[in-house]
Amino acid sequence: ATSARVPDADHEGKGVIHVVHLYPREMSIYGDLGNTRAIAARIRRHGYVPVVHQHHPGGEFPEQAHLILGGGGQDSGQVRVEDDLERIADRLRSMADAGTPMLMICGMYQLFGNAFITVEGKRLPGLGILDVTTQGNAKRMIGPVVLSTDFGDVVGYENHSGSTTLGDGQAPFGTVRAGQGNNGTDRTEGARTGNVIGSYLHGPILPANPALADALIGYAAKLATGRPFEPVPQDDGLADEARTRQVRRLVKR
Ligand code: GLN
Q1: Which of 91, 153, 178, 229 is within CB 3.0–4.6 Å of 218 for a Cys-Cys bond?
Q2: For residue range 45-86, what is the model confidence (pLDDT) as tens digits?
Q3: Apex CA 119: angle with CA 127 and CA 163, to 5°?
């Protein structure tokens, strides 16, 4: 992993939060890198110190990890990270069990499920952290999305060929108010188990939806410091305005 400098004790603020971005080269399309940038900036504004680690295939997984982010990618990018994901699978599974917050978008969401079968019929096994299965289709699902979630209305943009089905008892991340979501038919979008969230929403999702960003930071802060999250009020006026506009434009009353 390539890592930012770890701060010394005098500059730790309320605590140091280690963020790991999985496969930023292979899996980071449609601006998903923006999630890592937004979370680091927001951690800092809340008075904590972010340390961002980039995990690349073949690299050593960071010793400390309080928040894991993964983005979307083409089917070919997913093939390139498969072996490494298998290598770090046990670590990711035990961190998920321990309550480590994780946000996996699109291609990485698919790989956190049981399997992704590409449109050509190639089966990519997943981690099984989320009980979902994805089948690639010739027809892509593309466009702006509005969801209703535990974190309020969430807006974003989807572009995927994979059609995802939730296993029995698997909670979705949200309910589709506009757009296609997991499969275009059952109005579910993404999946959530504990603090692990998978979603198709690019945008990137975190700058557009600060409540979701703060929820992830809150879980990570508690994990990193052993104390409850101590947030600082933020000015989210721009994001709130843009989100309200997207909801009004897309959701029919
Ligand atoms: N290759 C996957 C699909 O099309 C993921 C695409 C993405 O990450 N945007 O379903």
Answers
A1: 229
A2: 999 999 999 999 999 999 999 999 999 999 999 999 999 999
A3: 60
* Centroid of ligand 1 to alpha carbon of 63 (angstroms): 29
Q: Best substitution site from 33, 82, 116, 160 to test ligand 1's pocket, by max atoms within 8 Å of Cβ?
A: 160
- With 0-12 CB in 10 A as exposed, 13-18 as middle and 19+ as buried, what is 76? exposed
The verdict on the CB of residue 18 being under 6 Å from ligand 1 is no
CA 159 to ligand 1: nearest atom = 9
ipTM of the complex: 0.90
Question: Helix 75-87 crosses helix 89-97 at what angle (to 10 degrees)?
Answer: 80
> What six digits make up the tokens of 218?
């809150």
Q: What is the dihedral of CA 98, 100, 104, 108, to 10 degrees?
A: -50
Identity of the amino acid at 237:
G
pTM above 0.90, yes or no: yes
Strand partners, 153: 148
